[in-house]
Amino acid sequence: MTSNNPQTREWQALSSDHHLAPFSDFKQLKEKGPRIITHAKGVYLWDSEGHQILDGMAGLWCVAIGYGRDELADAASKQMRELPYYNLFFQTAHPPVLELAKAISEIAPAGMNHVFFTGSGSEGNDTMLRMVRHYWAIKGQPNKKVIISRKNGYHGSTVAGASLGGMTYMHEQGDLPIPGIVHIPQPYWFAEGGDMSPEEFGVWAANQLEEKILELGVDNVGAFIAEPIQGAGGVIVPPDSYWPRIKEILAKYDILFVADEVICGFGRTGEWFGSDFYGLKPDMMTIAKGLTSGYIPMGGLIVRDEVVAVLNEGGDFNHGFTYSGHPVAAAVALENIRILREEKIIERVRSETAPYLQKRLRELNDHPLVGEVRGVGLLGAIELVKDKATRARYEGKGVGMICRQFCFDNGLIMRAVGDTMIIAPPLVISKTEIDELVAKARKCLDLTLSVLQG
Ligand code: PXG
C-alpha cells in the first residue's frame, strides 16, 4: 500500500521486521505492507492514511454491536480492577462467569442450560471433540468416535478445528485431518448443484449424511457438526430442502448434532442462533465472535441438559484452558448481551434491516457480473460469473480479488472467497449505511467488469 503518512511507513516496517500475520503470504505482505487500521466507530473504520471505510464484515464476522461502545470498555475496566483473573479449575468460580452462563442459557434454545467456556471458537470445537468422545465412552460406547463434518465448512484453525473444517488448503499444511474426522459434500448449489434444481440438490446433499453414517456404521459415529449457514466457505445458504432432510436423518440415528454457531450465533440471522432460524435441535453449540462482539476473545460450547446428565456421571473431564471463562471476557460478554437485549438489536435486524439489506442486495442481480445474490439476516453473498445462465466463472482471473481490492480502495470492506463476494456487517448497521454499502458494491462491480472487458 502506498503511503502519504510517514507513520504508516514506520508501522509497516515494524510489520515487516517483526510480525507474522494469520492467513497471509508472509513474503508478499512484507513487500506490500499491511493497511494499518487505527480506530473505529459504529460501522466505520479509519486507516492511518485517514481513509474512512465501511466495515461490511464486522471485523471478522464478530463486531455485532458495532465499534466504540464505551459500556464494554467500562465493564472490562471495572472487572480488571475488581478481579482481573482467576481460574475455574480446582473447584473455584467467580461471579461474572456464573452470571454469563445464566444469561446464555436464557437466550439459548430450550433445554440448553450449561456452558463450557474457552478462549476462541477453535478451542470451543476442540472442546466439543473431546466432550463428544468422553460422552460416548461414559455411555459405554467408546467406539462412537468419528465426527462427520462437511467439505468447505470452517471450524477453526487449531489442529482439531482445522481437521473438523473442510478446507483442503488448510489440510494440506500439517497433515490434516487427524484420524476420526470425515467430510461429506456441502449444500452449495450454485457451485456444485449441476443440473439439479436447488431443492433436489439440497436433498441429495443431506442424504450424504445418511450414506456416510451407514458406510461407517452408526456404532462408530459420535457426532455431526455443521454451521447453520457456512460463513468462511462463502456464505453458503443451503437450499430450503436441506435442513428438514438432515433433521429427519438425525432423528433416525443415535448420534449427537453440533451446530457451530460461531458466525450465525448472537443475532446474525435475525434470531439469537442460526439453530433458531432453521428450527434445529442441537446437542451442542459452539459460540465465539458475537458473544463479546469481538471486543475481547472468548468462545464456548453450550451443552444440552441430557448430555450434561451423562457427563455428570463420568468423573473428571480432563480438559480446560487457563483462560476458560476469563472474568474480564465474561464481564464484557455480559454487557454485550445486555446491550443486544435492551436495545432490541436482533429484533431490529429481523424486522427492519435484514429484509432491507436482502432486498437492496438482490437489486445487484441485474449486473452483468452477478450470477446469484443470496443471504439471510445480515449475511450476504454475491457470485461473480462470466455467464449467468451456465454459472460459468472467469477461470484463472482472480475476479474476486480484483473486486476486493476495488472495494478496499473505495471505502468498503467486502471479502472475497474465490469469486464469491461476501458481507456480514455489524448488526447495528442502519438503512442509510446499507444504501451506502450497496452503492459502493455496485461501483466496485462496475470497476471489476471494466478491468475484465479492458
Ligand atoms: N467456527 C466457525 C463457524 C468460524 O467461522 C471458528 C469456528 C473458529 O473461531 P476462532 O475464534 O478460533 O477463530 C470460526 C472462525 C474467514 C475467517 O476468513 C473466519 C473465521 C476465522 C478466521 C477467518 O472468514 N471464523
Report on this structure.
The protein is built from 17 helices and 15 strands. Strands 4-10-9-8-7-5-6 form a seven-stranded mixed sheet, sandwiched between helices. A four-stranded mixed sheet has the order 1-2-3-13. A four-stranded antiparallel sheet has the order 11-12-15-14, covered by helices on one side. The chain is globular and about 65 Å long. The model has no long low-confidence stretch (mean pLDDT 97). Helix 10 (198-216) packs parallel to helix 11 (242-252). It is of the alpha/beta class. The protein has two domains: 35-65 and 346-453, Aspartate Aminotransferase, domain 1 (Alpha-Beta Complex); 70-342, Aspartate Aminotransferase, domain 2 (3-Layer(aba) Sandwich), CATH 3.40.640.10.
